[in-house]
Amino acid sequence: MKRIVFCDFDGTITQTETFVAMLKHFTPVLAERLLPEIYAKRLTLREGVRRFIQSIPSVRYSEIIEFTRTQPIRPGLLELLDLLDAEAIPFVVISGGLKGMVESVLNPLHDRIHAIHAMEVDTRGTFLQVHSAYESGTELVAKAQIMANYEADQTIAIGDSITDLNMALAASIVFARSPLTRYLEERNQPYIPWNDFFEVRDYLRNHILSRPLEQSLRSH
Question: Is 39 a member of any domain?
Answer without folding.
Answer: no
